[in-house]
Amino acid sequence: MSQQAAAGPPGRPILIHDPTLRDGHHAVRHQLGREQLRAYAEAADAAGIPVVEVGHGNGLGASSLQAGRALLSDAAMLSVVRDALSTSKLGVFMLPGWGTTEDIRQAVAHDVDLVRIGTHCTEGNLAERHLGLLRDAGVDAHGVLLMSHMATPERLAEECAQLVGFGATGVGILDSSGYYLPTDVTTRIAAIRSAVDVPVMFHGHNNLGMAVANSIAAAEAGATILDACARGFGAGAGNTQLEVLVPVLERLGYDTGIDFYRLLDAADIAERELMPAPPTIDSIGVVSGLAGVFSGFRNRVLDVAAREGVDPRDVFFELGRLQAVAGQEDLIEDVTLTLRAGSTGRDERTASHV
């Protein structure tokens, strides 16, 4: 078999952004070590993956009791992966509120090539200071909107146009809960594409088994940057599976510039070195996607629900009803305790009538 995933001349270019070493951290409670980071980064670099992103699952500055303590500091992770990359660019992610301008400066000092600043889908204004800092430093900076299913296509387009005004050199949306179907993606990417003149990206999660299809829909609607992780390694039910997405794109006439065999090798290394098992779409993953809840909440919900004797499915649906977003991890505890109290009250009323 040829190392090229598809026959024929190169087609429309698509840039693949690989957050395996950042989003994947959610699946292992942010405990990846130096040798694990190095092994995958070197394999991704050899495959020609354009951008390799590293960090705590919630990004720069997020290692904490609330979001989970990472095994390594941000500086250590950046140093290891920077040294492992010879051709791939080094990317990082930051959420204002977790990370600070000082975290950005530290990342710039480690020669990062691309910084993504993420905000809730209707709060792009929170990225203004950070994008301005990166613009002034001459660093490629993208503004990305989380939990994007909570906003209309028109509102997302307005937010992305605002991010470009702040200095973003690229913009896009994250399907943070794996809620979208392809038509949802098409309308949103098309609206954003018509509102900006910078590259547009899409980041999918696989809770409903739609991540690859949604990524293709994004490309067909005009996105030129797609996120994907080896073996889908990521929060909850996992992300778009990188080694599946690339050959599908090539079959459709897109050009990723990635060496297919070496990509498969990198995915094998990821499965062997980074994760106890690849992500699966289990019952909790489906519920989380249907509820529209941030995939990174999964482990915390399961822990608190088990401790309090509450059905985690109820917790996810209630968090969805409340439109909980990344950064509101404390709400998991509140919701679970409220559900437990309600259940206890029902049990007591039932017993009094026996």
TrEMBL record:
This is 4-hydroxy-2-oxovalerate aldolase. GO terms for biological process: L-leucine biosynthetic process. The active site is at residue 26. The keyword Nucleotidyltransferase does not apply. It catalyses: (S)-4-hydroxy-2-oxopentanoate = acetaldehyde + pyruvate; (S)-4-hydroxy-2-oxohexanoate = propanal + pyruvate. Belongs to the 4-hydroxy-2-oxovalerate aldolase family. It comes from Micromonospora matsumotoense. InterPro entries: 2-IPM_HCS-like (IPR050073), 4OH_2_O-val_aldolase (IPR017629), Aldolase_TIM (IPR013785), DmpG_comm (IPR012425), DRE_TIM_HOA (IPR035685), PYR_CT (IPR000891). GO terms for molecular function: 2-isopropylmalate synthase activity; 4-hydroxy-2-oxovalerate aldolase activity; manganese ion binding. Mn(2+) binds at residues 23, 203, 205. Substrate binds at residues 22-23, 176, 203. The record marks 22 as: Transition state stabilizer. Residues 14-264 form the Pyruvate carboxyltransferase domain. It comes from the Bacteria. The keyword Lyase applies. Its EC number is 4.1.3.39. Transmembrane segments: none annotated. Keywords: Aromatic hydrocarbons catabolism, Lyase, Manganese, Metal-binding.
